[in-house]
Amino acid sequence: MKIFLVEDDDAIGTGLKYSLEKEGYEVLLCTSKEQALDGWEKSQYALCILDINLPDGNGYDICKYIKSKEDVPIIFLTASDAEVNVVMGLEMGADDYICKPFRINELMARIRTVLRRTGKVRSTEEADQALTIQHIKIYPNEVKVCKLNSQTNEEEQIELTALEYRLLLTFCNNRGVVLSRTQLLEDMWDISGDFVNDNTLTVYIKRLRDKIEKNPANPTIIKTVRGMGYIIEK
Q1: Rg of the chain's alpha carbons, rounded to an integer?
Q2: Which of 2, 98, 105, 97 is nearest to 47 (CA)?
Q3: Helix, strand, coil abundance in the chain, percent, nearest 5
Q4: Domain named OmpR/PhoB-type: which ranges (predicted)?
Q5: H or E segment and range at residue 211
Q6: Distance in angstroms (rounded) separating the CA atoms of residues 35 and 40
Q7: Mean pLDDT across 153-172
Q8: Cα separation of 63 and 73, whole Å?
Q9: What is residue 185's three-state secondary structure?
Q10: 126-132 long-range CB contacts below 8 Å, 24 or more apart?
């Protein structure tokens, strides 16, 4: 499956190309508007990833050109999540956007979701790929968390912020392991690019418990290990 990638930052572009190819995609990397318009005519692509700011134009121009030729799903890379940027991209027909800095796993999940939604690929194993913790289900491919309603026996989606979701994933990826506050702080710094202090971590854990625990005052999912940290048991 071919992906059309436009990114003028050499480090980001090369890193993305390498990561996408490791996932089995074939990638054409372009670093300018001119190169992108020329490269588009030479092949067919399943999905486009377009940086907005380019040295000789912008990703919006490329998006317009591509959409005038054929209906291919597009994900925008943007250094800003300003509403005007998001709305403009979506109005032009983009399927999703992701803000820099981002984790490669998040981008891969967005790619898979867009490809499935647009009919490029369909997964028959989504239920098997879900992570289950008591009444909570996490769908990494869709970046989605649901809880089971005990009365209706139906899943209800839980709205988590990006940091809350990533904090939950950190616990899930280390089930049965006590994570110290220092470890969690280091991981949250790495994934967010923002400063997270000890007090902020306490707030995020409380908010996450409020959303996923049946009784946040007596948590059974994210447990406190006094003097050591937190754990989600196996």
Answers
A1: 20
A2: 2
A3: 45, 20, 35
A4: 128-234
A5: helix 198-212
A6: 9
A7: 86
A8: 10
A9: helix
A10: 131/172
User: What tokens does 60 get?
Assistant: 């919006």
DSSP H or E run through 226: none
Kind of pairing, strands 53-54 and 144-148?
Answer: unpaired
Amino acid at 106: E
Three-state SS at 207: helix
Q: How far is CA 47 from CA 66, 75, 81, 232, in A?
A: 11, 8, 21, 37
**Whether the predicted pLDDT of 124 surpasses 60:** no
CB 232 within 8 A of CB 221: yes
**What gap in Å lies between CA 20 and CA 160, rounded to an integer?**
27
pLDDT in tens, 50-71: 998 899 988 999 999 998 888 8
Q: Which residues contact 198 (CB under 8 A, 6 or more apart)?
A: 181, 185
